[in-house]
Amino acid sequence: MPDVTIDPGLALRPFRAVRYDTARVDSLAAVTSPPYDLIDEESLARFMAEEPHNVVRLILPQDDYRKAAETLRSWLTSGILTVDDEPALYVYEEVSGSVVQRGLIGAVGVHEDGSGVILPHEHVYPGPVRDRLALMTATEANLEPIFLLYEGGAGSAAARIVDEVASSLAPVLETSTGDDVRHRLWAIRDPAEQAKIAEDLRGRQALIADGHHRYATYQALRRRHDGPGPWDYGLALLVDSVEYPPRLGAIHRVLPALPLSEAVRLAKSAFRVEPVGFDLAAGLERLGAHDDTAFLLGGDGEFVLLTDPDPAQVERSMPEESSDRWRRLDTAVLHRLLIPRVWGVEDDESNVRIVHHDAARAVAKARRGNGTAVILNPLKVPDVLAVAANGEKVPRKSTSFGPKPRTGLVMRTFAAD
Hints:
Blueprint: E1 12-13, E2 18-20, H1 28-31, H2 41-50, H3 56-59, H4 65-78, E3 81-83, E4 89-96, E5 99-109, E6 118-119, H5 126-139, E7 141-142, E8 146-150, H6 157-168, E9 173-176, E10 182-188, H7 191-201, E11 206-210, H8 212-223, E12 233-240, E13 247-249, E14 251-255, H9 260-267, E15 272-275, H10 280-288, E16 294-299, E17 304-307, H11 311-317, H12 324-327, H13 330-342, E18 353-356, H14 359-368, E19 372-375, H15 381-389, E20 400-402, E21 412-413
Parallel strand pairs: 6-11, 8-12
Antiparallel strand pairs: 1-5, 2-3, 4-5, 4-10, 5-12, 7-21, 8-11, 9-10, 13-20, 14-18, 14-19, 15-17, 16-17, 16-19
């Protein structure tokens, strides 16, 4: 479908936000959650048990998408959720310790790949896209924002307005969540300010920091419709990476069916293998000292550091069309050489589990199943940006930008928009 129903550039449109009525729930912290793909079964059970109106009942309906739609309608009808009276852009702030991130939440114009406006940097898989498409179709809603980065910086009208609003107006909501993050939200309802932001953004590009599968779902949903409508836009948080540089964390792997001893034995055919003791902190320090490709293996036994992959095997494992920078990514070596060729494991969601940030949790998961945890260093932001600008995509689940927006603070329904 050609991009004829949205602005040709980067567009962030005001919308009527759907938000919890704070008088009808115990607290915003109790009814909100991390993004859907960061919630494991244990966390889901806890969220479900602790609060009957937690947003996980909408974003993770356990394949019963019609139930999620019924729940959403019920909460809107009963007043648990309310719709803002007029369209707005929203300044959203997250504060964690000394880290402050501010950005704009709005309805971003959806473009097809190749437009050069919104740049993906990770591959997506059909299963999660089908899942999110079924949910968005049933609920006719964007229940959590994707996370976009753009380069604004000095002289950017959008950046100036974001900081002026946050420093001069009272927030429309404020809460602190169990992860020790403070969240605040302000509404920009002035059409003149909205117009200045639109003009500033129009010629810019945005990088998808988090939400590749949801953005692919926005695209798929848009293709289903012949004419213009609310599906031409999707809920997004847009952050100026110059003013608020993102944190880039690692995403670790757990191979539950591969014992650590076997993983180490096979790895010797392609890597330098070095035992580093039983202390995770010491192993992480050794891993972090490596600028080149390195992995820390953990499980039932001593931690082992893999370094210096065989250049000839690396070269044979890489796609011919890939750039040198892409080939040097740790996750490229992991997904092209170590997992499928050295270990002979099919790299899919059932054989390779994902753990964001928490190395100790990944190791614990591996030990429970007599498997292997692969602990990685974070990728470098310049490498990710360069790969995306070159039209390439890093392997799946290579990056974890943060801080991520809290799910449930701001939602968008097609009916309200």
